[in-house]
Amino acid sequence: MFSLKLKYSDQSSNLLELSYPGKMRTFIGLLLPVLILIYFRENRDASFLNNISLYLIALMSILIGQYDERWYFNRADHKIIRKIGLRVWYKTQALSFSDVEYIEVRCFGRRKMSWLNKTDLKTYQKYARLSLRLKTDRIKNIDVVGGKYVHQLLKKGAAISDFCGIPFQNKTDN
Which pairing describes strands 67-74 and 15-19: parallel, antiparallel, or unpaired? Predict the structure, then answer.
């Protein structure tokens, strides 16, 4: 539910989009405010000043529900565009396909458990990330998930790689 989803564009066969699903934003943006309204309906004697923290939580929930992050991979223009921010205010970053050396999936946060042998250790990865490795040796992280969902990142990375023609490297133990 809280991971970026791949979606091929309906308008163009040259556009691949990676974004948070609308269900997640709706869930976060409406659930807490609705619960707070229900609370106030039941407690009509509550004054504004006594419950200012509830109003702030509702406001923060609405703002968090407006958060959006999208990655566009445009095969026709050879561009990768990232839009991040609130629905109305967002920052845009653009990269060219030629700036990217490869796409990688890497596990990190390995738990050190001395009583396990090396082959069992790979099942104890804490997190995995999908990244763009730039030719300038910088890394642009696209998505981070728990280690047990690394297979989803491998599928996303391979799909992006096939779509864009950028090399893909699996740097996990899987």
Answer: antiparallel
